[in-house]
Amino acid sequence: MAKSYDVIVIGGGPAGYVAAIRAAQLGMTTAVVDEFVYKDGEPSLGGTCLNVGCIPSKALLDSSEQYHKVSHQLAAHGIKTGSVELDVATMIARKDKVVKDLTGGIAQLFKANKIDWLQGHGKLLEGKQVEVTPTAGKKKPQTYSAENVIIATGSKPIDIDAAPLDGDRIVNSDGALEFTEVPKRLGIIGAGVIGLEMGSVWSRLGSKVVLLEAQDDFLPAVDGRVAKAALKEFEKQGLDIRFGARVTNAKVGKNVTVHYEDKDGKQSMQLDKLIVSVGRRPNTADLFTEDSELLLDERGYINVDENCRTNLPGVFAVGDVVRGPMLAHKGSEEGVMVAELIAGKPGHVNYDTIPWVIYTHPEIAWAGKTEQQLKSAGVPFRSGTFNFGATGRARAMEETAGMVKIIAHAETDRILGVHIVGPQASELIAEAVVAMEFHGSSEDLARIIHAHPTLSEAVHEAALSVSKRAIHKAN
């Protein structure tokens, strides 16, 4: 007889493992089915984010930033270092250790919360049953039953026929984390979040980076003024971003030859490595049997309501596999919401205040609406800005690039959006999210005392600027 649980979660990434931990905290017997295997051949919790996404990319971003500082910035502080040597193997090994420490920590949390980790591929069957095909060996599939099933199978990189992956010269974002040496000339298809982050890593380490972006606009989801300021900084850093560039063919020979078309016609270039970074798609292949009757939308996402309920009673779906932004923290909060709803408690996710971050240098972060969205919707607004270059802390840090922009409703003054490009933007955006969660106004932020000297003073001054009373700039 199949073992039964209160909750079975399919997928052990940020949406799935968080849902499982919260369900276990609420007293429910819980199991997680996960099939991820790390490059060392060992099963590993944490999904894409911890293994080949958010965490390893940030580890490399930090390493590359340290290298760049030592090579180019410390002299301004009176620190002379002499020649600097880069050891890529050690840098990758450090990244791997960071990953192992965190994924091992999740396994310990599972033990502490008495969560069963079922290693293998999970498939939803009819009647809230889950078939688990073991990852390794020739063990037969096992079937488990549950009162509730939470699908959290995440997403994977989109491949394109024009640039087939070969695992060495042409890679996706996973492969971009495993280069054994710095490519002299690196191409990236796509100048979105992942493309920019990977480009930043290898550019700081010495690569000549070219990003081929099919769209004509830079980061269309970002506020226009912030995107423009960010693009200016990236171009200063040497990132060669070409817009309206559609790749038609990429072939591996002695080098990677890339053919593309732009406003000037047909073009080609020779590269050492090529990263394909054109977005991600939900992992729904071989996820359920036809008789389970799980409903997908036209793009392959699992169809859910505002509380992440699917069309099947007792079956939920969260994270990248459902509508909304593909962000780890969004998936985690959906996981918590669903676990609490199953336990009979109120659960809620406010999709209007989810923070977004691009971990380039300078960082880009935002929450709420952009100016272009508000104009399109006909919402009256006022906005205020403040440059980091006018703050003492940013000056002292030699991190003067960027700005804070705050948008408030013209009549109620409620904060509608906050947009930041600059140092520590990923941390500064949290203050804005808290203010927006409590329906705060620009006046509220303007009246809160911010410590001096800090980067957060730029948020304070931007709030003052909404009503044209910033102190440290001309209004």
Automatic annotation (TrEMBL):
Enumerate the Gene3D superfamilies for this protein.
3.30.390.30, FAD/NAD(P)-binding domain (3.50.50.60)
What biological-process GO terms show up in the record?
Answer: 2-oxoglutarate metabolic process
Q: What is this protein called?
A: Dihydrolipoyl dehydrogenase
Which residues bind FAD per the record? K58, G122, T153, G154, S155, D320, M326, L327, A328, H329
Q: Which UniProt keywords apply?
A: Cytoplasm, Disulfide bond, FAD, Flavoprotein, NAD, Nucleotide-binding, Oxidoreductase, Redox-active center
Organism of derivation: Natronocella acetinitrilica
EC id:
1.8.1.4
Query: What are this entry's molecular-function GO terms?
Result: dihydrolipoyl dehydrogenase (NADH) activity; flavin adenine dinucleotide binding
Which residues are connected by disulfide bridges in this protein?
C49-C54
The UniProt catalytic activity note for this protein reads: N(6)-[(R)-dihydrolipoyl]-L-lysyl-[protein] + NAD(+) = N(6)-[(R)-lipoyl]-L-lysyl-[protein] + NADH + H(+)
Into which family does the record put it? Answer: Belongs to the class-I pyridine nucleotide-disulfide oxidoreductase family.
